[in-house]
Backbone:
């Protein structure tokens, strides 16, 4: 029995990556980069009192487009684009709620989706504070964690499994935080440990491919936290690492602005900080579905790769010569997306394999807790978004299996997904990733089954 060959990369500021490999080595690495600064005092913390998330469903395409343009021109925070269901979610303060309702087109149906954002944030913080602050192993995934806590987690994993894990930084964010990655790797000569005996159930592969061809060396890169407020993305990948290695954790903290999305880089407008990292990648940058306005949540930046974090992550992916899969984790909407986001008419040359994998992965995911994910190209299933990561990893870095996933939920809590969904999200998403690994192993190396 040979162990498989994987590498996972997780990043704490915005990025998580993992790599899948062949032969007898197993690799994982993770990285991350996008964490808002910690508040210096409680008065520094941005509050969302009396803010709501409203849903508006509009079937008339012209009315919908006008409404979207109007939301953008008001600088309101669109939480969900009306992709498949013609319904949008938008965050509004009390004053803007009235304006919104008064000006909606007659064809619109609306309702309150989240009635008080601040009370949900408070609730989450109260649970964290009351929870096991210094929870180590068992309860780690019952909570969200701060940047420092996650670094501690990764360092502990690395101390506990020095033969297996390599922790590294790919560089610094704009505000000077390390973008951490972790590679989990089983050495060829190494005897399988108990841990890897367990992992082999997931990643096992025959010593020779069934078709007699030389096996390809493959890596899987997983990337999380590209958008700061999508905490479940980071938590889910941390869960993957833990499941593959062991479990460890620490205490809680709060961030300055729970709804922050972009990086922390200044722009040409003094009062509008941040580039949307997922509009700043260098493939067909500025081709639609991104904004030149520095105040927009989808600000593309002054040039491709002007965001330090995007550039570092792209250099990292480019340096992984055996990268075979890249998955960029986001929230929310429950989608498994493939290229392209920039051009709605461009079809990837590997469309058939990508579609087959996507359908299988979402089926495997659903089998765990019954959660439904839709699958398809970014541009069709969600919206046009140029300068996104998966277009670049696919078209420029030649990572054949490039995906982005929008994790739980469909809007009940949105970005404020409760902590008790971290483990279920981790479990179901890991099932999808494992399916993908197996699919790739079979498709690229001709290995059937275990
Ligand atoms: O708009 C985005 O960047 C993603 N949705 S989110 O709500 N998490 O912000 C979708 C991104 C699709 N992927 C790429 N275009 N790469
Ligand atoms: Zn996102």
Residues:
């Amino acid at each position: 029995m040979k162990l498989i060959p994987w590498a996972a990369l997780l990043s704490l500021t915005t990025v998580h990556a993992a790599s899948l490999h062949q032969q007898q080595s197993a690799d994982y690495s993770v990285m991350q980069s996008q964490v808002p600064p910690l508040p210096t005092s409680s008065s520094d913390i941005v509050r969302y009192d009396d803010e709501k998330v409203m849903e508006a469903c509009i079937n008339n395409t012209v009315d919908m487009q006008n409404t979207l343009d109007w939301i953008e021109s008001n600088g309101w925070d669109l939480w969900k684009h009306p992709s498949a269901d013609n319904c949008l979610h938008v965050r509004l303060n009390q004053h803007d709620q009235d304006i919104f309702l008064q000006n909606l087109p007659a064809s619109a149906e609306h309702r309150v989706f989240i009635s008080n954002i601040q009370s949900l944030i408070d609730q989450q913080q109260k649970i964290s504070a009351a929870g096991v602050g210094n929870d180590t192993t068992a309860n780690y995934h019952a909570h969200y964690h701060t940047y420092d806590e996650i670094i501690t987690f990764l360092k502990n994993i690395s101390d506990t499994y020095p033969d297996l894990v390599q922790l590294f930084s790919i560089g610094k964010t704009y505000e000077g935080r390390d973008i951490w990655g972790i590679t989990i790797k089983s050495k060829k000569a190494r005897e399988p440990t108990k841990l890897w005996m367990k992992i082999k159930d997931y990643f096992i592969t025959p010593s020779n491919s069934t078709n007699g061809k030389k096996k390809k060396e493959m890596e899987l890169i997983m990337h999380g936290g590209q958008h700061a407020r999508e905490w479940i993305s980071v938590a889910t990948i941390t869960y993957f690492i833990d499941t593959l290695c062991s479990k460890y954790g620490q205490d809680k903290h709060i961030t300055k602005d729970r709804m922050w999305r972009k990086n922390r880089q200044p722009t040409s407008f003094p009062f509008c900080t941040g580039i949307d990292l997922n509009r700043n990648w260098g493939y067909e940058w500025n081709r639609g579905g991104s904004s030149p306005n520095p105040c927009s949540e989808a600000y593309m930046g002054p040039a491709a790769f002007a965001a330090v974090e995007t550039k570092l992550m792209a250099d990292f992916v480019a340096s992984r010569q055996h990268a075979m899969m890249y998955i960029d984790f986001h929230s929310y909407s429950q989608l498994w997306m493939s290229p392209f986001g920039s051009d709605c008419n461009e079809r990837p040359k590997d469309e058939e394999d990508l579609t087959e994998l996507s359908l299988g992965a979402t089926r495997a995911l659903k089998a765990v807790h019954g959660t439904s994910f839709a699958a398809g190209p970014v541009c069709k299933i969600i919206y046009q978004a140029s300068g996104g990561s998966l277009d670049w990893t696919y078209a420029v870095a030649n990572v054949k299996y490039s995906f982005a996933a929008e994790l739980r939920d469909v809007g009940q809590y949105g970005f404020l997904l409760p902590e008790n969904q971290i483990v279920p999200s981790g479990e179901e998403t890991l099932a999808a990733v494992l399916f993908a690994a197996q699919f790739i192993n079979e498709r690229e190396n001709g290995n059937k089954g275990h």
